[in-house]
Amino acid sequence: MIRFLKILPLLFAGFLYAQEEKVQSVYFDFDKFNLDEKQGNAVVDFIKNTDSTRIESIQIFGYTDDIGKEAYNFKLSANRANMIKEKLMHNGITKKIIVTIEGKGRILIDDDVIENLPEKRSKNRRVDVVLNLNPLPKIEIPGFFTTIQKKHIIGDHIYLENLLFERGSSKLTFEAKTQLDKISRLLLKYKKFEFEIQGHVCCTPPYQKEAIDLETRKRNLSQNRAESVYKYLVFKKIAKNRMTFKGYGNTVPLGKGSEYDRRVELVMTKI
Fold this sequence. Notes:
- By secondary structure, the chain is of the alpha/beta class.
- It is built from 6 helices and 10 strands; from the N terminus they run ββαβαβαβββαβαβαβ.
- The strands form 2 sheets. Strands 1-2-5-3-4 form a 5-stranded mixed β-sheet. A 5-stranded mixed β-sheet has the order 6-7-10-8-9.
């Protein structure tokens, strides 16, 4: 049984980086520390199937149920942890990355827990093998950025994470205007860039590519969103001849969720 304690997020047009921890639990019979062969092989496979270049360390923690004396349970939990250590080393797992082998003794159960008590106790007679993984290397998706760069090529997308809209609306939110203020300062600095402002929508049927703007009652929502950004950048003194705008309806979803498809992007057309 593998339990993932932390799930690593994938950020669109960004980076893949975070500490990660994986845990596999091995369960024991009551008052025993001899290892079931099937579970032993499973924990070895669990480690060997993990990218070895990312394994920073392995920790092994043994536990018992709440039956019996405390001192005895500490010894039993330590024996269980050591049994796992021996299994790993016997199968080629180097000792130097096993940084902790610890028996933690019994896991107490709340006094008011009565239902399924034998099952709860059986889950406490275990060893947790914890893999501490190094961060994944930074991954950049070519051509996608979250702000204006000093250098671009034609076709680069500037995906503005806060440039999102309410459902059915083309009005800029406070967060959107704040981000556009930052973008406009960069556009004034790098005056050679020309770009298309691309508007998008979500949540329309496949046969209906465009959505209705609730304010105008017309089916041109993505176009209106792009135009709202265009007008705001004109207000921030970005030259009109550097910009065009166009609505793309629901034809370019990001795959991150509907809220991320109610967006506007900038795409470089001349550098």
